[in-house]
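queue> pop job 88
queue> type: inverse folding (structure -> sequence)
queue> payload:
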C-alpha cells in the first residue's frame, strides 16, 4: 500500500475486501481487487514509468499468486 500511494499522478486508490459472499466463491476468478485512477493514459504511462511505479510493479510480481492478472480499463465520465 505505501508503494501505491507514492505513485505520481495517482488520483484515487480503492482496495476491495478479500472476503466475498459464499454464493460467489465458485464463480469468482479473483482474490483481491485494487483500483487505481489516473487522469488519462499518459498519466498511467508516466506513473508506471516512474521509479515508484516500477517499484510497485516489481512488488506486485513478488506478492501476487501465480495466475494473477492486471487489467487496464479506460472510463469516460
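queue> result:
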Amino acid at each position: 500500500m505505501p508503494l501505491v500511494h507514492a505513485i505520481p499522478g495517482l488520483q484515487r486508490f480503492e482496495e476491495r475486501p478479500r472476503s466475498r459472499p459464499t454464493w460467489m466463491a465458485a464463480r469468482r476468478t479473483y482474490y483481491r481487487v485494487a483500483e487505481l485512477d489516473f487522469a488519462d493514459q499518459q498519466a498511467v504511462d508516466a506513473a508506471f514509468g516512474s521509479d515508484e511505479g516500477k517499484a510497485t510493479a516489481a512488488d506486485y510480481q513478488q506478492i501476487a499468486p501465480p495466475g494473477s492478472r492486471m487489467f487496464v480499463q479506460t472510463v469516460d465520465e
